[in-house]
Amino acid sequence: MLDVKTIGLFFITAIAEILGCYLPYLWLKEGKTVWLLLPAACFLALFAWLLSLHPTAAGRVYAAYGGVYIFVAILWLWLVDGIRPTVWDIVGVSVAISGMAIIIFAPRGA
Q1: pTM tops 0.85
Q2: How many Cα atoms within 13 Å fall on the side-chain side of residue 47?
C-alpha cells in the first residue's frame, strides 16, 4: 500500500508544482490577470509541503519525484496544451519512470 500512496503523493505534488508555475506563465505570456500569482504562490507552497510528507530521505524523494514530474508534465502537454506527445516523449517518460522506480522502491538495508 505504501507504493500506491507514494506514487499518488508524487502525482499530487507534480500537479501542485505545475500549477504553481503555469499560472505565472499565463500572466507573463498570455496576458492573464496578475491575480493568478496568488493561487500560484499557494500551489508552490503546497508543493513544498507535499514533498515533506514522504517517508524517506529528502534527496531520494527529490530524485524520484523528478521521474513522476516528467510524466505529469508530458500529460499536461497533451491534456492542457493540446499537443500530442511524440514517440520520443514517451521513450523519455519511460526512462524517467524506470529511474524513479529504481530509486524509490529499491530494497534498502535497515
Answers
A1: no
A2: 18
pLDDT in tens, the chain (110 residues): 457 787 888 899 999 999 999 999 999 999 999 999 999 999 999 999 998 887 776 777 788 888 889 999 999 999 999 999 999 999 999 999 999 888 878 887 75
- Are residues 80 and 60 in contact, defined by beta-carbon separation less than 8 angstroms? no
The residues, ordered by sequence, that sit 6+ positions from 40 with a Cβ below 8 Å of its Cβ are 19, 20, 21, 22, 23, 24
Residue in 92, 75, 104, 98 with CA at minimum distance from that of residue 4: 104
Q: Where are the domains of the chain?
A: 2-105
Check if the beta carbon of residue 2 is closer than 8 Å to that of residue 60.
no
Residue type, 103: I
- Candidates 44, 57, 52; CA nearest to 14 is 44
Give the Cβ contact number of residue 29 at 10 Å.
Answer: 8
Helix axis angle for 58-79 and 37-51, nearest 10°, is: 140
